[in-house]
Amino acid sequence: MNIADFISKFSAEFDDTDATEFSAETKFKNLEEWSSITALSIIAMADNDYGIELTGEDIRNSETINDLFNIISKK
After folding, report:
1. CA angle 56, 58, 59 (to 5 degrees)
2. 22 vs 47: CA distance, rounded Å
3. Residue 38 phi/psi, 5° resolution?
4. Are the C-beta atoms of 9 and 45 separated by less than 8 Å?
5. Count of CA atoms in the C-beta half-sphere (13 A) of 73
6. Are the CB atoms for 15 and 34 separated by under 8 Å?
């Protein structure tokens, strides 16, 4: 797993936000499209693509996409 691959998969969970909006330092909760449904999609993506159980607490404790990437990398 690398950060570029993770950003690509993360951005795919957003329907209306342009992929160019996403980088490692993107504060994903500030995106207009961010919602609890999107959070559940990210949790499902982590499980399906990486076999990692990401929790709501993991998301609450993260500010950037890189923060989530680091959590998944350590699990």
Report:
1. 65
2. 21
3. -65, -40
4. yes
5. 11
6. no
